[in-house]
Amino acid sequence: MTEKILRAAIRATVLDGVTHAFFTRQGGVSEGVYATLNGGVGSSDDPAAVAENRARMARALGVAPENFLVPYQIHSADALAVSAPWPEGERPRCDGLVTATPGLALGVTGADCGVLLFADKRAGVIGAAHSGWKGALTGMVEALVAAMEALGARRGNIAAALGPTIAQQSYEVGPEFFARFEAEDAGFARFFAPSAKPDHFLFDLPGLIEMRAERARIGAFENLRLDTYSDEARFYSYRRKTHRGEPDYGRLIAAIALPE
């Protein structure tokens, strides 16, 4: 089954030579709206199914399941350095993890929000970040890069990739949402296009995240340009679930590892 997961997983050219995967929803054991590789412990899926799905991902990354670390995400711009697994039930509340410790894999979950993987191959430092609109607005990318630097990375050597994320054509927002961004920086208006609905806009979350990466002056950035909303066969989507009135949704996982 690990081979099936690996065949379905997506990789970034900019991270060639680094163990990583943007896992799709294919290759797991979950059923119903969670079919099949749901990695979200925060969902109402069978916990045993989620644990098996994550164990399969860990094996695909070449680490022990207990060394596959995913934080309790809170839509923040907080990044944490880790060097060992945390005690069971004590996941840190943050949206980014970094490490320089071999044998660990770092992951984040998403189902429309941006999921990003980072690596400085020379320094042997990796990172993973979850960036929804709040994280993009408040500087999740910059925080993750700073945390990597604290472990010895150099930002000019850092490569990052943005995985499956809701695309602009699928992300309609209201006037209050637009006003919040414009109040922060008038230049953010360029990430909004008029929608067919009066006084509404289409928001370019991937574009804003990419701009943040440029401002962070990292060495390389790749946007895989994969729309979670429109590609139901491969990706979960919170917004698609909401529009359909479904009871819950699965979570995708993006992960990167430093195998021993």
Name the helicity range: 25-40%
Kindly state the mean pLDDT as a whole number?
97
The quaternary structure here is single chain
User: Main β-sheet: number of strands, strand sense, barrel status?
Assistant: 6 strands, mixed
CATH names the topology as CNF1/YfiH-like putative cysteine hydrolases
* Proportion of strand residues: 15-25%
CATH architecture: 4-Layer Sandwich
Q: Please report the distance between the alpha carbons of the first and last residues.
A: 22 Å
As residue ranges, the low-confidence spans are none
Give the helices and strands, then pairings:
Blueprint (H helix, E strand, L loop, with lengths): L1 H7 L10 E4 L24 H15 L6 E2 L9 E3 L14 E4 L4 E7 L3 E7 L4 E7 L1 H6 L1 H11 L8 E4 L9 E2 L1 H10 L7 E3 L6 E3 L1 H11 L4 E4 L14 H7 L7 E7 L2
Parallel strand pairs: 2-5, 3-4, 8-12
Antiparallel strand pairs: 1-13, 4-7, 5-13, 6-7, 6-8, 9-11, 10-11
